[in-house]
Here is the input.
Amino acid sequence: MNLTIGLSPCPNDTFIFDAMLNGKIDTEDLTFTYQLEDVETLNRLAKTGSLDISKISYGTLPPLLPHYRVLNAGGALGRGVGPIFISKKFDAASNPDLSTMVVALPGIQTTAHLLFSLAYPEVKNKSFIPFHEIETAVLQDTVDAGVIIHENRFTYQEKGLNKLADLGEIWEKNTRHPIPLGGIVARRDYDLSLLQKINRIIYNSLAYAFAHQEVLPDFVTTNAQEMSEEIMRNHIHLYVNDFSLNLGSTGRSAVWKLLELYNQIHSYPVGGDFEVFID
Here is the structure.
């Protein structure tokens, strides 16, 4: 059986899925055709139902629940991994007028946008652009500030940008949960045994990656050519952890909290009669 799977080209995803996509582990009679896209594109593709399995932002999960369930393995969730609110014009002590500030965000459906909206509901002037363009937009004064994710966490200070806030720290302080950034979903209409098999393969793929991490695989390095190996490894270390092997009860509680807060903002019925996770 061949399944389509959507992933981002970021080192955390390519590290996790390399072994199962490139013949390094037993995939139990399943084959996979992968598509690499930025996470906002993956969110849109998941909304159309065009992928069998996909990485998605947890911030876009509620509308997907009629069609997908969340797998336990493969996601990005943790502590100290949240998006960073940055600016060139302002710093944390300058107390800017947030109501007039123009802020660049990495996509309307991203978890970064949801976390930012929860922390700063007074900000209404938002510009949604690809995440890798946000630093440049802030540096060129196209916007007053921006919310950065992924590898930009490691480079913004070198470029003279200031941290206004760590959205992850705000989330953790307010909820006491780790930050649910992105998860892996699979079609709801698959029977549970197939969903469990997919989850098991992803788990084994990451276990293989952890066991062979002394050398980064080509699948990681060729899709992150503009990064140094140090940045790639920092990226993987930050976003790939025990929660990526198994959400567990702590991870599931964090996702549920995000769904509840999404409901408060959007008046969207969270969960409904749908099972969110697999057993």
Q: What stands out?
A: The first helix runs from residue 11 to 21. Residues 17 and 261 are 30 Å apart (CA to CA).
